[in-house]
Each structure stands twice: as C-alpha cells, then as structure tokens.
Amino acid sequence: MGSANRPRFRGRDILAVGTLGGVGSFMRWMVGVALPKAWEPAAVAFVNLAGAFGLGVLAEWVLRDRTPESARRFLWYGTGFLGGLTTFSGFSGDALQLGPRAGIGYGVFSFVAGWLALRAGRRLVARAYGQPTAERKEERR
C-alpha cells in the first residue's frame, strides 16, 4: 500500500490496537483455560491457524478496498486483535516442551498450516467478490 493511501494515525488508533490486542489475548487465554493441559499445543495451533485465516480474510478485503479506512481496519484488527490472539511465544514454548523431534514437526506443521489458512482466508473473500485482487493479476503477467 503506497504512502498516499496510509491514514494518519491518531490516539484512537493506539487505543483501538491496545484494546483489541487485549481482547485477542484474552480470547487466546480462554481457549487455553477451556482445554486440558495436555491439549495446550493443539490449542495454540488452533488459535494460530484461526488467526492466520482471519488475517487472510482481512488482508484480502484491505487489498480490494485500498483506502485509508481499510488500512486503519487492518491496523486495528490485524495488528490489534489478531496480533493479540495469535502467539509466537506460546508456539515456541510448546515446540520446546514437545522435544526436538516432535517440536520440529510441530513447527513445520504450524508454519505450513498457518500459511495455508492465510491463503484460504484470502480465497474465501476473492470468491465472494468473484474476481482476483490486483496483486494476483500482476502475478499472472
């Protein structure tokens, strides 16, 4: 997104990112509390995949809209809520607890599945709009 499309960020943006980041973090914590301790790696993986999918949906909408308001939405919900929801520290800690072999497998799975979830979110929005984004049109050339 070019600098001409970037909104001027204000105090409400700081407040929104902080608040939504807190909401996302709280939701991640609730998922962990709701499941038995043995399921912790699965809970972190689920939350991270849901966040990656949500980020894909959000990114596709922003790429299609390309307005200062869509950039602000990405800041609030992408950086704020989804940034709070997903967790690299939890993912890393779980990989360490699983041991070298299982930890590497968990890391590879999380990365690949997260990337696929992000792509699935973008494709969902692309299908809803019935047309590819400008970014994909340029990739095809």
TrEMBL record:
Protein name: Fluoride-specific ion channel FluC
Keywords assigned by UniProt, alphabetized: Cell membrane, Ion channel, Ion transport, Membrane, Metal-binding, Sodium, Transmembrane, Transmembrane helix, Transport
Subcellular location: Cell membrane
A Pfam family per the record: CRCB
GO cellular component, one term: plasma membrane
Topology within the bilayer: Multi-pass membrane protein
Function as written in the Swiss-Prot or TrEMBL entry: Fluoride-specific ion channel. Important for reducing fluoride concentration in the cell, thus reducing its toxicity.
Keyword Nuclease carried by entry: no
UniProt GO molecular function: fluoride channel activity; metal ion binding
Example of a GO biological process term: cellular detoxification of fluoride
Organism: Brockia lithotrophica
Bilayer-spanning residue ranges: 12-31, 43-62, 74-92, 98-118
Source species taxonomy: Bacteria, Bacillati, Bacillota, Bacilli, Bacillales
Inhibition and activation profile: Na(+) is not transported, but it plays an essential structural role and its presence is essential for fluoride channel function.
InterPro entries according to UniProt: FluC
Reaction(s) this enzyme catalyzes, per UniProt: fluoride(in) = fluoride(out)
Similarity remark: Belongs to the fluoride channel Fluc/FEX (TC 1.A.43) family.
PANTHER family: FLUORIDE EXPORT PROTEIN 1-RELATED (PTHR28259)
Source taxon at top rank: Bacteria
HAMAP family per record: FluC
Residue numbers binding Na(+): G83, T86
